């Protein structure tokens, strides 16, 4: 967003208010003179604390929550280089697979490596560990342990005196420890970080270089491998063979290894144990000590869980066979089925990273700001427009980021100040943003990382997950929209002036191409039915090609640019038709069989993105300083361009199109790697838990225990799962919560009910997302309160109430899978097809009516939470509205609960046909809702009209 754009500049000026007084939602009005100028913008000399946050302020809030370092200079450059290398590695995997080979014109095929899955996963995790140790400090000296240790030296000084040798020794030790591990300003890399990074790199090197030995040890056991001493001595012997003067080092190393402890330990065991500990340390830094302790406790349980005997009261079911450290490390580190490199990391390699990279490219291209402005163009002038635009903007951004916290801060930096200025209380404004942003992880087509894990855990195509998740996601955003509308009606909050929003037609004409990647992604997934990885890769290429084209396009270059691309594409098509190979193949002497036109068109289409990039870059190089009217990179790209150009003493380069495009590519890959670091560390750590469950045989026993506690009640089982998801998910990534609970509770749900497996997994995912806005932790709400300058706890409670439908809808679709457009039970389920739609006796009562019920039910929830519909709603009416909402949304939940209670007291085992009762309860809910609506509307017509700008208290 640039100041030279009058439409975008006007949108930053904020809303105009209806009337002379400023509406507030805290129960009063602000009767001060409206400081806005005649043109609708705020007085530049007035600072009421509601101004839009700068990118630096938003980044500072985000770094404070995520506890990241603020690096500069050579260290920041090193992080970017490693991040770009990480992204390039993943791009190669997405484009070419696990074989690293390429063709050179004069040499032919050159193969660098052909990696196995375990090796690829190890490199993937090693990259993430190295970045984690660079981005997150070991400690800033403010933790509980560090604070207690800080009291030691003052106590020693008080006991022995300031000049005592013991005191001096204690001070020296303190300085050494602080130099070694403390980064109180979060801006320097400590020595211990370098040690950890070297060890992380060694784990990956060993996997790549000595994979034959690893395969042998997976059969014979880690204890049968070379010792640390043998490995180190052999390494320096090999070094001496290459550089003879250094051969003496082998004897030196052998002598040293003879006196150093633990050198007789297997090198494979050592690296496996160290690697597991490094994952735990990275987890502590990036995700908090809470998750680290949970994962560590499972490792301890794997070693000493045998102490629990089968005869132990209550917990005897948790008894496991005794295992050795060697077997535990082998299962946790040298295994792609379970453990660190198990299914979660495999999914990260194949799906999660490339989609995060897709989001990073889309965000850095300027799509994020464009989507925000599109939301304001579409809804900003409506009643309560800024809050409604916040919901849409957060939904758009959720398709890009998939992170509740990042979405809250980046979008909220723009939307929350506008909501506050329009009259919403700070707590309500922050709650709206946090609630809507948390929905990004459940909104197709991208969703969050957990959605990709379902592909492996359930074995269904991602297209089925998208279809199943669509209606619940729409219901959620619709529910938040309803509550925002009712609050705006209650508080008499208007929208923005038409002059303060961008014209939607002009806005679409300037950025329509941002929609192309999302449309292509849906096309590849739902129409072509390509794999997730291929779909993401093709879409990523499309983004790079589109942005290159936009950067090269202007009135002067438009026609020749399009003509050149079209000519090369037709030449490529002709080459495939006649010779079976492309233009490059013909020039290098390759040959093949001629293809049909359809086959040639498909093959040439695969090279279209490359053609567009090469032609566009050539045009940019020919006229590097020409204008690019449609180009509007994210501010982070422009900042990086300026810094990079200044760093190489060529500041004028920052104004050239080729340099900015190159920076866009590099910044996108760097940003994708930084975002992925926490996700990769999370899935690596969380993979340990299902690894322990599987390796110890705990799974069946745990399932039996959960089923016994639930007593055969599906309602209790779902409640246990919901509560566990919320408690476990507080302060932890949704991905981790999903992995843990699917491992522990997923089998119990699948075996104890007729719920389709996909519905059960989505149920767990939904409640894991709710944890981000559930007090007392509520990380997304805490982030929003930092932007809104509001009370964190009140913001969290309000965000939870606004997301209340997100807590009821999972019960609705778990018990009525037609809401997910699914049919079947347990693992025998499928997405609805045309035959199901035409089967009226099924489709109408089990799909259409339940879907209508949840949409109407969330309106009833809105009246309950806000306390306003057409007119104020009394407490008794609120209670009746919530009853109607439950009957409309989840009648089978009510029915199952009643049946469980009656069965427990022995009155009745079966209350009737479930479908008939389901429809009857929904009808009763609908009648009750209609009666309450008519009564409330009649009451509104008796009320005198309110003065413009007057508001009443919400609470």
Write up what this structure looks like.
This protein is mostly helical and 955 residues long. It contains 42 helices and 6 strands. The strands form 3 sheets. It has a two-stranded antiparallel sheet. A two-stranded antiparallel ribbon has the order 3-4. Strand 5 (822-825) and strand 6 (828-831) form a beta hairpin.
List the helices and strands and how they pair.
Layout: H1 6-12, E1 22-23, E2 29-30, H2 55-66, H3 73-96, E3 99-104, E4 108-114, H4 117-135, H5 144-149, H6 152-160, H7 165-181, H8 191-209, H9 211-220, H10 228-242, H11 248-257, H12 267-287, H13 289-304, H14 325-333, H15 343-379, H16 385-398, H17 404-422, H18 426-438, H19 449-458, H20 462-491, H21 504-511, H22 515-527, H23 532-552, H24 558-579, H25 583-587, H26 597-622, H27 635-647, H28 657-686, H29 688-696, H30 698-710, H31 714-729, H32 734-744, H33 746-752, H34 757-770, H35 779-788, H36 792-802, H37 804-815, E5 822-825, E6 828-831, H38 834-838, H39 840-866, H40 875-889, H41 891-904, H42 914-942
Helix pairs in contact: 2-17, 2-35, 3-4, 3-15, 3-28, 4-8, 4-28, 6-7, 8-12, 10-11, 12-13, 12-14, 12-28, 13-29, 15-16, 15-19, 15-21, 15-23, 15-28, 16-17, 16-18, 16-20, 17-18, 17-35, 18-35, 18-36, 19-34, 20-37, 20-39, 22-23, 23-26, 23-28, 24-26, 27-28, 28-32, 30-31, 30-33, 31-32, 31-34, 32-34, ...
């Amino acid at each position: 967003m640039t100041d030279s754009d009058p439409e975008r500049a006007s949108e930053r000026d904020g809303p105009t208010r209806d009337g002379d007084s400023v509406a507030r939602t805290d129960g009063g009005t602000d009767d001060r003179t409206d400081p806005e100028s005649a043109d609708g913008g705020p007085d530049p000399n007035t600072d009421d604390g509601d101004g839009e946050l700068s990118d630096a302020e938003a980044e500072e809030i985000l770094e404070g929550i995520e506890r990241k370092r603020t690096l500069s200079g050579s260290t920041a450059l090193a992080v970017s280089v490693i991040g770009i290398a990480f992204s390039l590695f993943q791009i190669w995997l997405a484009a070419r697979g696990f074989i690293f080979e390429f063709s050179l014109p004069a040499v032919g095929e050159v193969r660098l490596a052909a990696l196995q899955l375990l090796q690829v996963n190890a490199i993937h995790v090693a990259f993430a560990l190295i970045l984690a140790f660079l981005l997150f400090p070991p400690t800033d000296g403010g933790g509980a342990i560090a604070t207690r240790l800080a009291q030691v030296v003052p106590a020693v000084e008080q006991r022995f005196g300031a000049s005592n040798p013991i005191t001096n020794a204690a001070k020296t030790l303190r300085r050494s420890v602080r130099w070694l591990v403390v980064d109180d300003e979060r801006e320097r890399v400590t020595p211990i970080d370098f040690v950890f990074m070297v060890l992380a790199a060694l784990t990956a090197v060993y996997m790549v270089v000595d994979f034959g030995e690893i395969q042998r040890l997976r059969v014979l056991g880690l204890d049968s491998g070379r010792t640390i001493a043998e490995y180190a001595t052999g390494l320096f012997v090999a070094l001496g063979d290459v550089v003879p003067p250094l051969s003496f080092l082998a004897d030196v190393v052998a002598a040293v290894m003879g006196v150093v402890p633990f050198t007789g330990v297997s090198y494979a065991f050592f690296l496996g144990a160290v690697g597991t500990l490094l994952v735990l340390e990275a987890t502590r830094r990036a995700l908090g000590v809470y998750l680290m302790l949970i994962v560590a406790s499972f490792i301890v349980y794997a070693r000493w869980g045998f102490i629990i005997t089968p005869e132990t009261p209550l917990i005897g079911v948790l008894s496991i066979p005794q295992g050795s450290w060697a077997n535990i490390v082998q299962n946790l580190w040298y295994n792609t089925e379970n453990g660190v490199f198990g299914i979660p990391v495999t999914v990260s390699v194949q799906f999660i990273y490339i989609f995060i990279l897709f989001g990073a490219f889309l965000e850095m291209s300027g799509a994020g700001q464009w989507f925000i402005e599109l939301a304001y163009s579409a809804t900003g002038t409506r009643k309560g427009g800024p809050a409604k635009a916040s919901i849409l903007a957060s939904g758009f951004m959720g398709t890009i980021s998939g992170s509740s916290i990042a979405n809250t801060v980046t979008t909220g930096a723009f939307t929350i100040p506008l909501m506050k200025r329009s009259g919403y209380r700070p707590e309500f404004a922050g709650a709206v943003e946090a609630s809507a942003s948390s929905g990004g992880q459940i909104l197709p087509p991208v969703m969050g990382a957990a959605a990709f894990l379902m592909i492996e855990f359930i074995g269904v195509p991602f297209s089925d997950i998208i279809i199943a998740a669509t209606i619940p996601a729409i219901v959620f955003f619709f529910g938040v929209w309803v509550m925002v509308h009712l609050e705006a009606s209650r508080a008499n909050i208007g929208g923005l002036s038409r002059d303060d929003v961008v014209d939607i037609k002009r806005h679409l004409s300037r950025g329509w191409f941002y929609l192309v990647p999302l449309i292509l992604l849906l096309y590849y997934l739902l129409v072509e039915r390509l794999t997730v990885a291929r779909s993401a890769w093709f879409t990523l290429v499309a983004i790079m090609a589109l942005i290159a084209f936009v950067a090269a396009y202007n009135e002067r270059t438009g026609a020749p640019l399009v003509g050149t691309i079209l000519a090369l594409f037709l030449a490529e098509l002709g080459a495939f038709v006649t010779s079976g190979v492309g233009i490059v193949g013909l020039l290098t002497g390759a040959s093949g069989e001629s293809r049909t036109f359809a086959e040639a068109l498909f093959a040439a289409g695969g090279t279209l993105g490359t053609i567009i990039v090469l032609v566009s870059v050539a045009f940019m190089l020919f006229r590097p300083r020409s204008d690019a009217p449609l180009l509007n990179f994210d501010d982070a790209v422009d900042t990086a361009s300026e810094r990079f150009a200044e760093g190489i003493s060529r500041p004028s380069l920052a104004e050239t199109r080729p340099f900015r495009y190159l920076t866009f590519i590099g910044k996108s890959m760097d940003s994708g790697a930084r975002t992925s670091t926490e996700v990769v560390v999370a899935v690596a750590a969380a993979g340990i838990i299902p690894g322990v469950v599987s390796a110890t045989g705990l799974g069946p026993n745990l399932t039996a225990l959960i089923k016994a506690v639930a007593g055969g009640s599906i309602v209790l089982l779902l409640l246990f799962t919901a509560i566990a998801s919320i408690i476990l998910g507080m302060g932890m990534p949704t991905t981790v919560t999903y992995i843990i609970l699917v491992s522990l509770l997923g089998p119990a749900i699948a075996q104890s009910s007729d719920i389709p497996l996909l519905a059960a997994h989505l149920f767990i995912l939904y409640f894991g997302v709710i944890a981000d806005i559930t007090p007392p932790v509520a990380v997304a709400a805490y982030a929003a309160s930092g932007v809104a300058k509001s009370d964190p706890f009140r913001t969290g409670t309000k965000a939870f109430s606004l997301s209340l439908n997100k807590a009821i809808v999972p019960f609705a679709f778990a018990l009525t899978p037609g809401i997910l457009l699914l049919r079947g039970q347990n693992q025998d389920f499928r997405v609805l097809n045309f035959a199901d739609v035409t089967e009226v006796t099924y489709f109408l009562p089990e799909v259409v009516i339940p879907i209508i019920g949840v949409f109407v039910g969330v309106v009833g929830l809105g009246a309950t939470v806000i306390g306003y519909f057409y007119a104020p709603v009394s407490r008794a009416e609120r209670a009746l509205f919530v009853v109607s909402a439950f009957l409309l949304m989840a009648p089978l939940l009510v029915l199952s609960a009643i049946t469980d209670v009656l069965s427990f007291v022995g009155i009745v085992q079966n209350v009737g046909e479930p479908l008939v009762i389901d429809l009857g309860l929904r009808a009763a809910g609908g009648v009750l809702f209609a009666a309450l609506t008519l009564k409330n509307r009649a009451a509104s017509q008796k009320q005198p009209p309110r003065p413009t700008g007057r508001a009443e208290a919400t609470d």
